[in-house]
Amino acid sequence: MNTTTQKKSNGNGASRALPARGVDWLHNPVFNKGTAFTGAERDALGLRGLLPPHVQTMDEQVRRVMDNFRSKSNDLERYIQIVGLQDRNETLFYRVVMENLEELMPIIYTPTVGKACQEFGHIFRRTRGFYISSEDRGQMESILQNWPTHDVKVIVVTDGERILGLGDLGASGMGIPIGKLSLYTACAGIHPTQCLPITIDVGTDNETLLKDPLYTGLRQKRIRGDAYDALIEEFMVAVEKQFPGVLVQFEDFGNSNAFRLLEKYRDRACTFNDDIQGTGSVALAGILSALRITGGKLRDQRVLFLGAGEAGIGIADNIVNVLVEEGLTPAEARKCVWFVDSKGLIVKGRGNLTEHKLHYAHDHAPCADLFSAVKSIKPTMLIGASGQAKTFTHEIITTMASLNERPVIFALSNPTSKAECTADEAYTWTDGRAVFASGSPFFPVNVNGRVHVPGQGNNAYIFPGVGLGIVCTGARRVTDSMFIVAARTLASLIRENELAEGRVYPSLQRIHEVSLAIAIAVAEEVYAKKLNTQPRPADLPGYIRSQMFKPEYPDYTKK
Ligand code: NAD
C-alpha cells in the first residue's frame, strides 16, 4: 500500500503523515507498535522479518517494560529507560505511565527529572522537543516551521534559569518541559502530538556547565535586558502565528523574568506561569483541604511563608483572591499572609522590596530569621518555598506544635534534597499532629502506631486539567479565577477517608478523574467569562472526555 501521502491518527485526535516504508513504522514513535504489530499489519506495512515472530499484546509489553524498569539500579537509570521508550513508542510509554503513575511520576517528574537535567548533556541520547537560541533572533518564525505538526495546542517553554530548586541549568533544563508535557498527556489526556516542549537558550551563568565539555547549550553568559525581552517577544509572536490560539505555559524562568513576562503577556496571549499560578492553585487546594482537617476558616489563619519568590507569592496571591471572593478587602486579606525571605521578615520600612513583596509588608518589628518570626507572628500555617533544605528546624516545628493543635506545615521546595523538612521530621517532632504536604514525594510515616500519609502538592494535580479545559473551549486567555476554580475543585474531591489518613490531596491513582473534573470546572469558567472561541457542546463532560487521548494501538490495516 502506498502510504507516503496518507495521514492517519494514531488514536484519537492529532494526525501525522504515515511512514513510507516498513522500517520507518518501527522508527516512528507516534506509529510504532513494536512487537504488537499484528500479522496482518506486518504483511500490509512491509514489516515481515523486521520483528520477532511472536505478536505480543500490549499487556505483555507493559509487563516487559516494568520488569526492566524495576530491575534498574537507580532512578536516573529508570529515567533513561523510560524516556528511551517514549522515543521509540509513545503509545506504549503512555500506557505504562498511566497504569503506573504513582511509581513513574517521581521518575518522569520531580525529583528524578531534576537529576536528569543536571546530567542532561551526559545522558543525552536522542533529541526531543524544540530548541531556540539567542542566535536564532530574527528567524524564529521560519525555524518553527521545522516542527513536524501544525496541530500544536500546548507549549511548555523554559529558559532554564531556575530549574526546580536547582538554579540555572541553561539548555539542560529541557527535561522540564518534556516532563511537564508528558504529564499533560498522562494526567489529562492531551494528545502527545499536540504538545510541544521548547527551550529558549539565552546562555547560562552556571560556570560548571560552561566549563563542561558535554554541555549541550550555548557557551555564553545569559543575555539580559532589552536583548532578552526582544527574543521573548519574537518567540511569542512566532508561536501564535505558527500555532494560532496555542496555550503557552512558562516554566522555571528566573523570578525577575517570570513575574514580568506574566504581566506582559497574560492579556495578550493564552498563557500562564505554572510556577506562580499552578503552584498557587495546588497549594491553595492543600490549604483548603487542611482546613477540612483542622476545622478552621481561611480568614482566621496566619500563614507564614519562607521564600517570597514565584511559588510563595503565587500561593499568597491565591489566598488573597479567595478571601476577597469571600468579602474581605485586598488589604484585609493580605493581613493573613506573612513572608520571611533571605533577609528576614518582610515588614514595612524594609528597604529594596519588590512590588510583589511590598503588598505583604506589614507594620511589625523586624525579625532577622524564621524562628524569631514564628515566635512573633504565631502562624497557624507554615509554608516553605525557599529552595533551602532543612530550614524548618526542630525548634521551629516544635514551636509550631506548641502554638497549634494541628499545625499546618508545607515543605514545598523541590527536589527532595531541598525540602525545608522531611515528612518524618514534621510528623515525629509534632507527635503526629502536623498536617503536612511537600513538593516532592515522601513515604508514609508511622508515629506511635498511626500511619500518616503526606500529601504531595504536585502541580500535576492542576495544570493538566486546566490545560484540558482551555484546549477544549479554545480559551483566548488564562485567568487567575481559573486557578481558583481548579483549586476548589481539587479540594472538594478529597474523600473523608483520605483526610483521615492526613492526606490533603487525593491519591494520584485518581488523577484522570481529578483532571477531568478540573477541566469541566475550568471550561465552565471560560464560558462564564466569555473567553471561549468554540461553542459550548450540549454534553460538556462527555465532549471533554471524548477529547482525551487513550493509549491504545489502532489497527493500521483499517482505513
Ligand atoms: P524563586 O527563586 O522564585 O524564589 C525563592 C525565594 O526564596 C526567593 O524569594 C528567595 O529570596 C528566597 N530565599 C532564598 N534563600 C532563602 C533563605 N535562606 N531564607 C529565606 N528565603 C530564602 O523560586 P520559586 O519558584 O518560588 O520556588 C521555590 C521553591 O519552591 C523551589 O524549590 C521549587 O522547586 C519549589 N516549588 C514547589 C512547587 C510545588 O510544590 N508544587 C511548585 C513550584 C515551586
What does this structure look like?
The protein has 559 residues and is α/β, with parallel strands linked by helices. It has 4 domains: 7-98, Hemocyanin, N-terminal domain, CATH 1.20.1370; 108-269, Rossmann fold, CATH 3.40.50.10380; 277-457, NAD(P)-binding Rossmann-like Domain (Rossmann fold), CATH 3.40.50.720; 461-536, no CATH class. Helices cover 44% and strands 11% of the residues. The chain contains 25 helices and 16 strands. The strands form 4 sheets. The chain has a 7-stranded mixed beta sheet, sandwiched between helices. Strands 3-5-4-6-7 form a 5-stranded parallel beta sheet, sandwiched between helices. It has a two-stranded antiparallel ribbon with strand order 1-2. A hairpin with a 2-residue loop joins strand 14 (445-447) and strand 15. Helix 5 packs across helix 10 (175-188). The protein is globular, with a radius of gyration of 24 Å. It starts with 6 loop residues before the first strand and ends in a 12-residue tail after the last helix. Mean pLDDT is 95; it is low at 1-5 and 9-14. It binds nicotinamide-adenine-dinucleotide. The site of nicotinamide-adenine-dinucleotide has 29 residues, from helix 14, helix 15 and strand 9.
